[in-house]
Write a structure and sequence with these properties.
It is built from two helices and six strands; from the N terminus they run αββββββα. It has about 130 residues and is α+β, with helices and mostly antiparallel strands. β2 and β3 form a beta hairpin.
């Protein structure tokens, strides 16, 4: 996480939200090492040596964790956070990690189902990195 801190010290405008994957955090991790000044860190640990996800949210933002949107799959870690703007509109942020041994077709089906549910609730535009 020190790479994120280094990046933040080099830029003028800091992001409101930073999503990370492959945190490799577990219950024995030292969370003091990953704190960023001005941010709240929300995470889901992996049950393996890889994976894990986290979202840094600026402390001045109102948010709630949307665990009702969790994908509930042993080969995927995901966190969904709903952030409310000052004009009282909200948006969703999700970060996820799919383990390499996960069936990509099954993963796609699970994700497609979630996106369909979200589109019923609001317009949802996914953004991800493969």
């Amino acid at each position: 996480m020190s790479k994120i801190y280094e990046l933040l010290t080099d830029i003028v405008i800091t992001p409101d939200i930073i999503a990370v994957s492959e945190t490799k955090l577990n219950n024995n991790s030292n969370y003091n090492d990953i704190q960023l000044p001005g941010y709240t860190f929300i995470n889901k640990n992996s049950l393996t040596q890889a994976g894990g996800v986290g979202i840094y949210v600026k402390i001045n933002l109102i948010y709630k964790i949307r665990s009702d949107l969790d994908l509930h799959n042993d080969h995927i870690e995901d966190i969904w956070v709903e952030v409310t703007n000052v004009n009282n509109t909200s948006f969703l942020v999700c970060t996820l990690y799919s383990h390499p041994n996960n069936n990509t077709k099954h993963f796609g089906e699970i994700l497609e189902n979630s996106i369909n549910i979200l589109n019923m609730e609001r317009n949802f535009l996914p953004a991800w990195r493969f």
